[in-house]
Amino acid sequence: MNIEFLTSECREAARHDEVFGLCDDQNNTKAYSDTEHPDQWIATILNPDHVAVVFTPLDHCIKAFKEGTKDEESLCDGMLTTALCLYLVELKDRMHAGWQQKSTDQLVNTIQLLRANHDLAPFRYKKAYQCNKRFLSFKVIDNEENLRFFRTYGFRMDKQGEIPVK
User: Fold this and answer.
1) What is the pLDDT of residues 46-104, one digit of tens each?
2) Please, which residues bridge with residue 80 across strands?
3) How many Å apart are CA 32 and CA 101, to the nearest integer?
């Protein structure tokens, strides 16, 4: 199965905004970027150098099926890309037990599918973000946990609502 993430029809036009947000209405529709309704943002993208940033919704947009079944793969909500960066983003707007583990599972699954379908070497910075609008006091990720995640998947993990673009 070949899944096209990087040139998906779901891709939005490149943004150069200094600040914009990512939204997920949590109603089984795809995530989207926005500049006009900050109260709906789950993640805030900080782009002081006005770099061209492309947001690609993944969940509810890219269809990936588990091998040999008609069951869809669980993907994270979206992906931000620049010439040097590939950031995966899982957006949550609710509190429930286990949201962090479910978020991690979706990010890991997306990373594995990306790596199986694309050469990610051109991206110098690769990060996986867990963003939850209802969970403002993010815990700092243990250095050991972050190192283990990086060694296993090739991505740094971050749990915060602000995403700085390099």
Assistant:
1) 999 999 999 999 999 998 888 888 888 899 999 999 999 999 999 998 777 788 889 99
2) 55, 87
3) 23
**In this structure, what token pair is assigned to residue 136?**
């403002």
Instruction: Please state the separation of Cα 17 from the chain's center in Å.
Output: 18
The torsion angles phi and psi of 110, rounded to 5 degrees, stand at -65, -45
Q: What is the pTM for the complete model shown?
A: 0.92
DSSP states along 49-62: T---BEEEE-TTTS
Please tell me whether residue 151 adopts helix, strand or coil conformation: helix
Reading the block at residue 7, the tokens are 């040139």
Q: Which helix (H) or strand (E) holds 30?
A: none
Q: Dmax of the chain from CA atoms? A: 45
Q: What are the beta bridge partners of residue 23?
A: 32
As given in the structure block, the two tokens for residue 138 are 């993010």
Instruction: Please state, rounded to an integer, the average pLDDT across all residues of the chain.
Output: 91
Q: Say which DSSP state 7 is in.
A: T
Q: Which residue type, as a one-letter code, is found at position 157?
A: M
Residue 157 has pLDDT above 70, yes or no: yes
Strand segments, DSSP code E, in the chain are 19-23, 32-34, 43-46, 54-57, 78-81, 85-92, 125-132, 156-159, 162-164
Q: Which two tokens stand for residue 102?
A: 């479910």
